[in-house]
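User: Can you help me understand a structure? I only have the sequence.
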Amino acid sequence: MVAKRVIPCLDVENGRVVKGISFRDLRDAGDPVELGRRYAEEGADELVFLDISATLEGRRTMVEVVRRVASELDIPFTVGGGIRTLEDAEALLRNGADKVSVNTMAVERPDLVRSIARRYGDQCVVVAIDAKREAQSGGVAYRVYTHSGTRPTRHTAEEWARRAEELGAGELLVTSIDMDGRQAGYDVELLRRVSDSVGIPVIASGGAGSLEDFYRAIVDGGADAVLAASVFHFGRFSVRQVKEYLASRGLEVRL
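Assistant: Let's start by predicting it. Here is the structure, written out as tokens:
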């Protein structure tokens, strides 16, 4: 059995980690390298850093953050946010990132995913899917949004997940916009729909608030990894607590 991964997520704005609710009302959560070091010591399998300012200046700041993280930590980490070209991805990978995450540009320029996968291998490419629940006449659909959750697309989460896999994504980072930052549980139905649609790993994101939430994302949602931010940044749980709980429920994790 492949071990399930526990991944802290650090949203970075102007060189600082921030966290909000449903992508809004951000508050400061600390220095990215210091937090990354703490999570590595607690046993995090990987880290995800998302540049949410992603202006030209934000991109320069993020490259410096990547360089600092790579020089001080020895666990794999993914960087996303504002990656518009192959050159943007190369800058992050060359400065120490193990993977890059593409969201808006993956939808607007699907060939970007293919280009990164061909140059660096699909193991380096994470396609991030931000989805929001919609009531429809035939039931419930999950609409994919871009631009930090502000612009709806024509894609459903399942359809776009399949397309991303075809383009060369090595894994998917699936975030429920509705549940993000609310600590009320992952959207298990969203996760299950996506995980049943693809053959690549799915990372659950958006809503962890209890130890049981992590377990349900894996067992009921079919996730291969669980990602969280608020519960780690503000001290509700440590990474080690989550892993010990998952192990106590019979799941394979690296302790």
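Now, to help you interpret it: The first helix runs from residue 32 to 42. The domain at 5-248 is CATH 3.20.20.70 (TIM Barrel). Let me know which part you'd like to focus on.
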